[in-house]
Amino acid sequence: MSQNLLVVGSVALDSIETRAGKRDEILGGAATFISLAASRFCQVQLVAVIGENDFPDEHVRLLAARGIDLAGLERVPGRTFRWAGVYANDFSSRKTLDTQLGVFASFRPKVPAAYASSKYIMLGNINPELQLAVLDAVQGGHFVAMDTMNLWIETARDALGAVMRRTDLLTINDEEAFLLTGERQIARAAIAIRKMGPKAVIIKRGEHGAFLFHEDGVFFAPAYLLEEVVDPTGAGDSFAGGLLGHLASEDRTDFAALKRGMLFGAAIASATCEAFGVERTAKITREEIDARVASLRALTSLDPT
Amino acid sequence: MSQNLLVVGSVALDSIETRAGKRDEILGGAATFISLAASRFCQVQLVAVIGENDFPDEHVRLLAARGIDLAGLERVPGRTFRWAGVYANDFSSRKTLDTQLGVFASFRPKVPAAYASSKYIMLGNINPELQLAVLDAVQGGHFVAMDTMNLWIETARDALGAVMRRTDLLTINDEEAFLLTGERQIARAAIAIRKMGPKAVIIKRGEHGAFLFHEDGVFFAPAYLLEEVVDPTGAGDSFAGGLLGHLASEDRTDFAALKRGMLFGAAIASATCEAFGVERTAKITREEIDARVASLRALTSLDPT
Questions:
Q1: Which one of B178, B185, B215, B295 makes the best mutation probe of the A interface by having the most chain A beta carbons within 10 Å?
Q2: Contact A302 B297 (CB under 8 A)
Q3: pLDDT digits (tens, 9 = 90+) for B59-68
Q4: Whole-complex ipTM
Q5: H/E element holding A208?
Q6: CA-CA distance, B161 to B181, in Å (whole number)?
Q7: Interface test with A, best of B220, B246, B296 (most A CBs within 10 A)
Q8: CATH architecture of structural domain B4-299
């Protein structure tokens, strides 16, 4: 039976420049991409914060139209979190131009009572103290996935360690995995991370796919080959959202379920890159996702076509 | 029935520095790696040139011990081709410190009469004029694979085009594929390359695996995950050697055979990276190769373990 997925993380207004163009203050944030991607598969419950007066209603409508439960989307006085960045021409790196925490600076996640029994939880990339607060507010026995970033590895190591000890699945970029562990190869980094708590770890390599390291083995999900990339912002979060949404929809978290989920995540992540912001993520149909998953399966199949 | 593979390319003395250490004037060269890798699968016939007095006998003995036919290994007055380079700490790039063409500057490949009927030909990365000379010296009806590099794309475009029109399979790095085509994404680059002649193209991405673009579909072969890289020199050539050797051993060149061959190539390429020069490439056993191929198949399999 399909389960609910509780998502916590940032909802933001992003200003983005890539070789394909420029957009100002479009809908973004880790929790936004996770929720939109997961909403294709299961009921999503969002815990996040936005500014009282500066967050466009059309964004709220877009999330609501996808069936996302917004009871945990808090509106408080102040400005919505804003991020601005520019991508290198080959998308191999990006530079943050501006970060304005706004209402995020004093955010304390409030988990509605109706969310406390969610069986699946995705802790998007936010301060690990806030990730801990969410875990403290829900019942036990759930499957917890988390993401993190350089900032928290460098500045909030203890809290990050505490979250990791309560995490089933960590998703992390390769560079962040190296920073977190001091290792230089992903297989070694994964071994070190699993010793820190997470039973499974997915190391994301952007256009080069993602590796799952699990007690039952190692799995590699290739990225879907795109002919044009427009904006990769949120691709990693869409990947996590597709994966977690799929796990929740099947209510299975074994190795085989994680593998399948990664292909669904990769399919949605590829769509995210095809337009600015959430434009494609919000519109991709289940049929398009399934077609991309089939294509990803064929990509590594040895069977004669 | 297993067929012969004719290999042409450089036999060199390499001086290499990586984070793992430093070696001076060790056995290297594209044709060396291709031949050693392919020799695990089929009879290899080598066409190359070395200096009359400066090429250590032990290297000749090593090639002969692997059953490689050295009738086409010419010895001429002068110095053997030498290359020196240093790798970045994360192996993402390398810098050439020195190139001494030596006897390679005036090399004209001489194909022994006994090689002219070889059904498989691998044109290692050398001046395309020399690749053409080899094609002119052999009978038709064979399967031709070729590699190339930035230098020839920039300085010998016409000759390169002429070789490509007579090629069945081009293997090329992603950066070189972009330079050759002016494209920035590998799917587009592959389409452009196939219009230049090759019926199939393999775009190599180092530790990120390799894509095959073929009229029957697209296939991705992941790279074998190593816990430590010592020296990636020759990995791409070992990949091509393992692939071509496997094709020759099966005497099949259809899409499914190319897919299988890529996994064998990836298995040997990974071994090449585990030690300096040809140390591991020359020693890896068929059992070790088969174990790595099985591991590569499992890496992308959705079957429950």
A1: B185
A2: yes
A3: 999 999 999 9
A4: 0.91
A5: none
A6: 12
A7: B220
A8: 3-Layer(aba) Sandwich (3.40)
